[in-house]
Specification:
The complex is a heterodimer of chains A (about 120) and B (about 110). By secondary structure, chain A is mainly beta. Helices cover about 0% and strands about 60% of the residues of chain A. Chain A is built from no helices and eleven strands. Chain A starts with a strand and ends with a strand. In chain B, the strands form three sheets. In chain B, strands 2, 6, 7, 8, 11, 12 and 13 form a seven-stranded mixed sheet that branches. Chain B has a four-stranded antiparallel sheet with strand order 1-3-10-9, with no helix packed on it. In chain B, a hairpin with a 6-residue loop joins β6 and β7 (about 50-55). With about 110 residues, chain B is mainly beta. The interface between A and B is medium-sized, with 20 and 21 residues.
Chain lengths: ~120, ~110
């Protein structure tokens, strides 16, 4: 059964780095027919796509302009997972963060991680 | 960015009745090379991630009941639930995956009347 399992802290201090990991089972982060995304959801911003990574003979990355200067996605083929790093967080980054697979649209989602940015 | 606008924001329908949710994209999400609309519908229940219901505007995801139907073309799309069941109470989102940044509608909250 294909699934995505998220891990990472639920509380991050302002100006620090938010780090989350999405472990993949039943599929491969190196698959050439899928892409791997991070999406967040908050009452003020709704569902917001942050970025994705995918492998097509080499690795590609797309990032939302709103976070482009602060975000990094890292695929890890040895552990079959991909991670999100968001630098210099503020309270506006408080949200539920999801990892998701795009096969036919976003057909598989992680369970979600509530991340609060607070001192 | 492609802006997705849903209507209505909330909807109350009696059990067994039809529910209709609309979605409009600010530009076409039709990819001419394969004639597919890059438009999806999701259902989200409290405390859960969104669940894919419909992709390519009208293709039902495996396991989704056939009372859910997606239709539309160009920039105007519709999700129809033919006979509302109690378990359909949720928030519904449309999304375009035609171009990055992939964008979602604001959501439509569906309740029982």
């Amino acid at each position: 059964q294909v699934q995505l399992q998220q891990s990472g802290p639920g509380l991050v201090k302002p100006s620090q780095t938010l780090s989350l990991t999405c472990a993949i089972s039943g599929d491969s982060v190196s698959s050439t027919s899928t892409t791997w995304s991070w999406i967040r959801q908050s009452p003020s911003r709704g569902l917001e796509w942050l970025g994705n990574t995918y492998y097509r003979s080499h690795w590609y990355y797309d990032y939302a302009v709103s976070v482009k200067s602060r975000i990094t996605l890292n695929p890890d083929t040895s552990k079959n997972q991909f991670s999100l790093q968001l630098n210099s967080v503020t309270p506006e980054d408080t949200a539920v963060y999801y990892c998701a697979r795009r096969g036919n649209a976003f057909d598989l989602w992680g369970q979600g991680t509530m991340v609060t940015v607070s001192s | 960015d492609i802006v997705m606008t849903q209507s209505p924001d909330s909807l109350a329908v009696s059990l067994g009745e039809r529910a209709t949710i609309n979605c409009k994209s600010s530009q076409s999400v039709l990819y001419s090379s394969n004639n597919k609309h890059y438009l999806a519908w999701y259902q989200q229940k409290p405390g859960q991630p969104p669940k894919l219901l419909i992709y390519w505007a009208s293709i039902r995801e495996s396991g989704v009941p056939d009372r859910f139907t997606g239709s539309g073309s160009g920039t105007d799309f519709t999700l129809t639930i033919s006979s509302l069941q109690a378990e359909d109470v949720a928030v519904y989102y449309c999304q375009q995956y035609y171009s990055t940044p992939y964008t979602f509608g604001q959501g439509t909250k569906l309740e029982i009347k």
